[in-house]
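Appendix B. Raw example, untouched.
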Amino acid sequence: MSLANGRSYLAIPGPSVMPESVLRAMHRAAPNIYEGELIALTESLFPDLKKVARTDGHVAIYIGNGHAIWEAALANIVGPGDVVLVPATGSFGHGWADVATGLGAEAQVIDFGTSNPIDPDQVADALQADKGHRIKAVLGTHVDTSSSIKTDMAMLRRALDAAGHPALLLADCIASMGCDRFEMDRNGIDIAIAASQKGLMVPPGIGFVFLNDKARARRAAMPRVSRYWDWEPRINPERYYQYFCGTAPTHHLYGLRAALDLIHDEGIEHVWSRHEVLARAIWAAVDAWGQGGPIRLNVAEEKNRSHAVTSLAIGAEHGTRLRRWCQDQAGLTLGIGLGMSTAEDPDGDGFFRFGHMGHVNAQMIMGLLATVQTGMVALGIPHGRGGIEAASTVIAGATR
């Protein structure tokens, strides 16, 4: 008998759970796109977006998903014959490299696999070897949504500075913005990208490129940039339509205004802390379950784990069965093991992911964990005792 009737919980790593205030803000008739409240609302977004990214630089808004924002950032700074260095920690690093290749650039990928963090010495060696400075950008994925590896972006900045290399440092914060601590200016990031559908709690459809003056100087040196991707009119428009190179994504902007209000009312430091506590509760439960069964966290060291998404392994015979039980019997949807296939498990059936980003709280995470534990019981998957208790201890300790 299925017990999935009722409100379901989409616990995948994006699109994330959308707050009621965001949904209400978007539930309206189309506004005037030439004058009136939409223009003032749009202009209010830019300073608040920059507060989330911790930058005094600039931000351009694009209509598109994360892949579009990869291209938006690169189209302004690299062209045919340029080289980008990509230290990859999962499938999304490889995806960004592929976008660079599509623009005619050469992608020099250092593949660290799907469970290991970046080795800064290998990055430093690649930069030192580039005597002619053909490398124009280093593409760092702050959090890879497939592997859940978190990269120390300040470490990449140190590698660039130590090599005396002029390449721009880019950070893919699509999975991490508004979840994991990220401070663009403090960490020496030249360009950061984000999208609406994860920590920013808005439906998929808009994305953001944050950039500093060094990045603008590189753009100015480009022989040509696509009219649509060019960020200059978007950050310094003469007319409103130039913010978006055409019609504005009207309802997304209303939703984003409501989402930013939530973030700033809570305070970004508290947002980061909330995500950290909930992530540690998940890790504690999985560690306990793993004492008596096959389930394990994909990333061994805590410092390399994201606070927004957790990738797990449980064995090819269990992963898909557990995901489907949670969805069909309990109304909980977990993320697939994206990009985590192995020779022994070519379909990635033994991997899955918890999305715990954005509009999530303690009772939601405890419900997620209790459902997963119940699924393991129902399916006869071996696991250790005390998972829920371990998570409870983490959350209780944080609220004292």
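End of appendix B.
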